[in-house]
Automatic annotation (TrEMBL):
Any one GO MF annotation of this record: ATP hydrolysis activity
Protein name (Swiss-Prot/TrEMBL): AAA domain (Dynein-related subfamily)
Domain ATPase dynein-related AAA: 80-221
Lineage: Bacteria, Bacillati, Actinomycetota, Actinomycetes, Streptosporangiales
Gene3D superfamilies referenced in this protein's UniProt entry, alphabetically: P-loop containing nucleotide triphosphate hydrolases
InterPro entries for this protein: ATPase_dyneun-rel_AAA, CbbQ/NirQ/NorQ/GpvN, P-loop_NTPase
Length: 371
């Protein structure tokens, strides 16, 4: 089934694995959860030999084990889970994996924007049915959150802080009373949440909205902060994991030299340390330089080599993609990249050799083209 979708949700992509885990799971499960907390952790962080399983479970989210445990425990409690962090730190992906493992449904999602209204988290009406038959439960359109309440499963709220305070207030009542009333109806006018219902929300710490959440709403969520991955080994694993998936999805046969992966990781590490010592925003790249951004750069380079190159990823192409992806603001970002190329890539290329000279040249050309 997952072959027919551009991007299958985690419960579809990992259906066989989840079925198997369910069949061997003997641990206690809260509410109607499909897996026990231990199995959920194993599904997300992968198995180790000491787990003694007959089947190897690959790691899907890379990060601290204690964060994942806290997230799971929160969902078994009365409170919702709020994942906060910089863009591209894997918040949405973790939310999806949690919902897939707990409820086998990660698609009950509301996207928070300035235009999100209370209807999006409660219910709305099918106008033509209301005109024909009047208001009833049949002519009501439940929101994804209401569907999650009725089913006793996880509902997701992406970018919570981008929604208005009205919407956030409506969420407070859902999280505390655990029901939604439908005043338009005379009877059957309350939808109660079934056990197992909870909400996983995400918020971007660059949006600055987290502090503006009302204290009433904050109290109904446990906050779990997701840090930017700076450990090179984990980062390399994430990038490799995602890239292999991309190659499979596009059915691309392409050689990905490990030395190029090293160059990519090294450049991001250098640019991050430059950003952290920058004093003004003008001296900082606009990009958060997250792992997701690295994946984007590599994806771009791979597709470029596949369609326009000779099916080998070259340092020059990688440099071009890196410059192209990170130069968002002209001239600020280009000036920062230019400085980096002169001050860091050039000496490295002289000292280390290897693919660095080609990387140096490719970046220079790209910067010159964009300037
Ligand atoms: N720690 C991680 N483990 C596994 N994959 C990760 C991790 N961090 C980032 N990724 C990958 O990066 C991509 C982007 O992640 P995701 O969309 O979850 O980020 P996000 O934190 O929700 O960002 P935003 O705040 O911009 O919405 C995904 O493809 C994800 O697989
Ligand atoms: Mg997200």
């Amino acid at each position: 089934m997952s072959d027919d979708m551009l991007r299958a949700p985690a419960e579809v992509k990992y259906a066989a694995e989840l079925d198997w885990l369910e069949s061997v799971d003997t641990g206690p499960k809260p509410f109607s959860w499909r897996l026990s907390p231990r199995m959920i952790r194993l599904f997300i962080l992968g198995s180790e030999r000491s787990d003694g399983l007959d089947r190897e479970i690959p790691q899907k989210w890379f990060g601290d084990r204690s964060l994942v445990e806290r997230a799971i425990v929160t969902l078994a409690s009365d409170r919702g889970l709020l994942l906060i962090g910089d863009p591209g730190t894997g918040k949405s992906w973790l939310a999806e994996l949690l919902a897939a493992a707990i409820s086998r449904n990660s698609t009950l999602v509301v996207q928070g924007t300035a235009g999100t209204t209370e209807d999006h988290i409660k219910y709305s009406w099918n106008v033509s049915m209301v005109i024909a038959k009047g208001q009833s439960r049949d002519s009501m359109i439940p929101s994804p959150i209401m569907t999650a309440m009725e089913g006793g499963v996880i509902g997701r709220f992406e970018e919570l802080t981008r929604s208005t305070s009205d919407v956030q207030d409506a969420l407070i009542s859902i999280l505390s009373e655990k029901y939604v009333s439908i005043p338009e109806l005379d009877d059957d006018n309350i939808v109660f949440a079934q056990p197992g219902f909870s909400i996983i929300a995400t918020a971007n710490s660059r949006d600055r909205g987290v502090n503006d959440l009302s204290s009433a709403l904050k109290r109904r969520f446990n906050f779990v902060r997701i840090p930017v991955v700076t450990n090179k080994k984990s980062e390399a694993e994430i990038v490799r994991f995602r890239t292999e998936e991309l190659l499979r999805r596009h059915q691309i046969e392409l050689d990905l030299p490990p030395t190029l992966l090293d160059i990519l990781l090294q450049s991001f590490a250098d640019l991050r340390s430059a950003a952290s010592s920058a004093t003004s925003d003008d001296d900082k790249l606009e990009s958060a330089l997250s792992t997701a951004e690295q994946i984007g750069v590599l994806e771009d380079a791979i597709l470029h080599s596949h369609f326009f190159g000779d099916r080998v990823l070259r340092a020059q192409t990688l440099a071009g993609s890196l410059v192209g992806s990170l130069a968002r603001r002209s001239p600020e970002d280009l000036a920062i990249l230019n400085k980096y190329w002169h001050g860091v890539v050039e000496p490295r290329s002289k000292k280390d050799g290897g693919e660095w000279p080609e990387f140096l040249e490719g970046g220079r050309e790209a910067i010159a083209t964009l300037s």
